[in-house]
Design goal:
Layout (H helix, E strand, L loop, with lengths): L2 H7 L8 H15 L16 E3 L29 H13 L4 E3 L13 H10 L3 E6 L9 H6 L4 E6 L4 H7 L5 H18 L4 E7 L4 H5 L2 H7 L5 H5 L2 E3 L39 E2 L4 E3 L18 E4 L5 H5 L2 H12 L4 H4 L8
Parallel strand pairs: 1-2, 1-7, 2-3, 3-4, 4-5, 5-6
Antiparallel strand pairs: 7-8, 8-9
Length: about 350
């Protein structure tokens, strides 16, 4: 394991040093890759295309800019089926291979058509995955979800404790969360399906405290595979500011904001992982947004609208090219300047 890989993976997520790991790792990596070419990447289809089929969430997490979405864009909703199918058609035609249903903010399980949409992606030979807060696992047909063939879902959740859930995720749905996770895992084990649940706790407590709650140790762990147990993460020191929208004072307990990389001389790898929003607008990045007084998501990362152009014209067009070139010229959008999720391409 080299030094940069150590900085990225080996430092515990609740270590005080962890909030500096991304900064040290990416600055080192960016410097090391200075002379490597990258423009050849611009002609390839995205390795993964994110499709936000809804921007509605059933939680209001203290670390998430969902609470400020009204300052980013007006309105919310669910993607129309005709648009969803068109996006799949055009992405598949350009040679795409993977779909993420993770919205910038929101929860994919809120989409009443999510299971059918995952099934359609899988039936086409593409791979599907997404992050979810898991609250709606208790309200959907989890067997049908597993039978789609989806291989991975990442659960972003609070510690399995009612008080913690209400404090960090600010919902009153803890019972749905724990019952739904148990129901999902029991269904997976009963079907003997090749499905993996990745658990990432967003916690204001230490790793030791987070993993010690009885609902996790007694109800969830016995249903996990050994590999799933080994990949459980407790995220405490790695929260992004969302372009300055989230401050230290918004967080609780052990939580801390990650220190963003300083050297951003190459385009962010995430500009090669764009996101189609539920209304057809397309963004160069699937991770963050900045407040912009609700003006149609135009914070410097909006690159097109499928109501006006094809997906290929947008992804290989001038607006996308300009976003990437701004990293080279040092004129990157403010939301990118403050972003701790940056990764050099």
């Amino acid at each position: 394991m080299n030094v940069t890989e150590y900085l990225r993976t080996a430092i515990p997520y609740d270590s005080k040093a962890r909030r500096y790991a991304r900064w040290a790792y990416e600055d080192t990596r960016n410097t090391a890759r200075t002379l490597l070419p990258w423009r050849h990447l611009t002609t390839a289809p995205p390795q993964e295309l994110s499709i936000e089929t809804t921007n509605i969430c059933n939680a209001n997490c203290i670390f998430c800019a969902y609470q400020y979405q009204k300052d980013f864009r007006a309105g919310n909703g669910v993607m129309k089926e005709v648009l969803f199918v068109r996006v799949l058609d055009e992405y598949e035609a350009m040679g795409g291979s993977a779909i993420s249903f993770t919205p910038i903010v929101g929860d994919p399980l809120v989409d009443p058509n999510i299971i059918d949409r995952v099934a359609l992606v899988q039936d086409r030979g593409l791979t599907a995955q997404f992050y979810t807060n898991g609250i709606l696992f208790n309200r959907i047909d989890v067997e049908a979800l597993i039978r789609t063939g989806i291989k991975t879902i990442c659960l972003s959740t609070s510690p399995f404790d009612r008080e913690s859930h209400e404090r960090v995720y600010r919902t009153t749905h803890y019972s749905d969360l724990i019952e739904g996770v148990v129901k999902l895992l029991e269904a997976r084990n009963r079907l003997d399906a090749p499905f993996k649940l990745l658990i990432e706790f967003r916690s204001d407590l230490s790793t030791r405290e987070t993993l010690a709650f009885p609902d996790f140790m007694d109800r969830v762990v016995p249903l996990l595979s050994n590999d799933e147990v080994q990949t459980v993460r407790v995220m405490t020191k790695v929260f992004d500011t969302w372009g300055g929208q989230i401050a230290k004072g918004d967080l609780e307990g052990e939580m801390a904001l990650a220190v963003p990389p300083k050297m951003k001389r190459r385009p962010c790898f995430r500009t090669f992982l764009p996101e189609v929003l539920y209304d057809g607008k397309v963004r160069a990045c699937s991770c963050v947004f900045a407040k912009n007084n609700g003006v149609d998501a135009d914070d410097g990362l909006l690159i097109g609208d499928l109501n006006e152009s094809s997906l290929a014209d947008i992804l290989f067009g001038e607006n996308m090219a300009q976003v990437r070139e701004r990293f080279v010229t040092g004129d990157i959008p403010p939301v990118c300047q403050k972003c701790s999720i940056y990764r050099a391409c």
